[in-house]
Amino acid sequence: MKLKNYLLFLLLLVVLVMAGCEQQKDPLSQVLEKGTLTVAMRNTPAVFYEHRDGYAGFEYELVKSFADHLGVKLKVVNLTNAIEMEQAVLKGDVDMAAGSLGHTLDRNRRFSLSVPLLHSQQMVVYRTGHFRPKNWQDITQGASLAVLAGSRQAEVLQSQQVLHPHLSWMETEDLEVTDLLKMVQDGDLDYALVSTQDFNINRFFFPRVAVAFDTKVASALVWLFSKQDRSKLERAATNYINLAQASGKISEVRERYYRHEQYLEYVGAPLFLRHVRSRLPEYEEHFRNAAKVQDLDWNLLAAVAFQESHWRRNAVSPTGVRGLMMLTQRTANELNVDRLDPFESIEGGSRYLRQLYDRMAESVQGNDRLYMALASYNVGKGHLEDARIITQRQGFDPNSWDDVAKHLPLLTQRKWYRETRYGYARGNEPVTYVHNIRRYLEILEWHERSQDNFLEQLEERASKVRFETAFRKVPSII
Question: Are 192 and 181 in contact (CB under 8 A)?
Answer without folding.
Answer: yes
